[in-house]
């Protein structure tokens, strides 16, 4: 009976962080005053404190208070007692490493499955998939495992980018990378463009936002799905 | 007494694979008829056989024969007996995983340090750094370790891409990613643009090709170096 928003990005070009999700978040966290923040992904290498202050300033606008898991001496207890959770973006390797080192992978999974409202953006969304093997991030640290929360029965590729037909660059396109992933891994991958999110409510998964998403299944041509589509059958 | 070419990419836009390096390779592999190929990175998920056949067709033009390490029952012996080595591009996680699983990290390091001529392109260049933590690749498999050959005393970022000033995409730029790397890791990173390569000969490291490279050192502003510059003091 999960209740999650799994968003491609926290921020859209030209607007404030989370502004495009404001109504969605008021609804997600309805009746909850205090949200537990997981700052481990640390975008741009900022400190956990700086990240938390920035996020608190955003949530203040919708009358929510942020406490961060790094402020607790017992992070497992912090997760167990949380009424709502938000995991922000940054580097997925760093995030997953810290989740394992602090032994909160299982408590977090349990909290989300028990219905604690959860928002993930970027790296915080990546971890909702079966593994972090479709992250775009640089492997700046070696985590104990690539397995993640498995809130949805597939993998997420946030910040999904269509190939640029005019590019002369020889680095792999996102689509090529996901094809390589499928040579070794069976699960589908949802390419979430910036501005899209998945809503997980009870056992239903729905694509929301203004854009289509691109679905990659092993041994199939990739295909587009429209906003409003159900992904409940994808596994 | 290494003798290596560490190239950003195998292929430049609009030209044949390795064409821009042809004279350099004739010189590198001078007097050597048979080159041991390491196909483990498997670009686009092609088979080791397909990859080897393609590379053999390229090397035929400069009168070299390719044998691939995957064709030997004892890959360690294959490395020990090699007169010249080429590690091709593809996925660095896959490459490093296979190097560890086949226990050829140490033999490969020893061969290169003993002066066996070595060419690396893309993933094959990444592994010449201290770690693979500055690869651009997707973590499609979990290798036993991120430590690599350390032929040079810094890290490599192949296919280095300058930020696009017109981009509205909120995924991290390459420069941001390398900055995040430096929050956790001390070694310099050489951003090698497509068309650039490092020549390692004896104890000298030189930037070659037509382009500048971008150097990232911890707690310093990134800076450019011109082709022909020595990197021997960078560590």
From TrEMBL, chains A, B:
Q: Which CDD domains match?
A: GAT1_Peptidase_E
Q: Which GO terms describe its biological process?
A: proteolysis
UniProt cross-references to Pfam families, sorted A to Z = Peptidase_S51 (PF03575)
A GO molecular function assigned to this protein is:
serine-type peptidase activity
Q: What keywords sit in the KW lines?
A: Hydrolase, Protease, Serine protease
Q: What family does the entry list?
A: Belongs to the peptidase S51 family.
List the protein's name.
(Alpha)-aspartyl dipeptidase
């Amino acid at each position: 009976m999960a209740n999650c928003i799994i968003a491609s990005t926290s921020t859209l070009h030209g607007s404030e962080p989370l502004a495009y999700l404001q109504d969605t978040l008021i609804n997600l966290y309805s009746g909850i005053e205090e949200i537990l923040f997981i700052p481990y992904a640390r975008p741009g290498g900022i400190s956990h404190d700086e990240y938390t202050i920035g996020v608190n300033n955003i949530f203040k606008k919708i009358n929510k208070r942020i406490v961060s898991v790094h402020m607790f001496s017992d992070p497992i207890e912090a997760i167990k007692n949380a009424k709502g959770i938000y995991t922000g973006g940054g580097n997925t390797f760093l995030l997953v490493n810290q989740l394992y080192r602090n032994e909160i992978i299982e408590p977090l999974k349990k909290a989300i499955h028990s219905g604690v409202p959860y928002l993930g953006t970027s790296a915080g969304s990546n971890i909702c998939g079966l593994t972090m093997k479709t992250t775009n991030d640089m492997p700046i640290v070696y985590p104990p495992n690539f397995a993640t929360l498995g809130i949805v029965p597939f993998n997420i590729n946030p910040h999904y980018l269509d190939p640029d037909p005019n590019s002369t660059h020889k680095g792999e396109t996102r689509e090529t990378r996901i094809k390589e992933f499928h040579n070794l891994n069976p699960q589908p991958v949802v390419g979430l463009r910036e501005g899209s999110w998945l809503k997980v409510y009870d056992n239903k998964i729905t694509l929301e936002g203004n854009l289509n998403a691109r679905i990659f299944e092993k041994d199939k041509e990739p295909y587009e799905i429209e906003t409003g589509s159900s992904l409940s059958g994808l596994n």
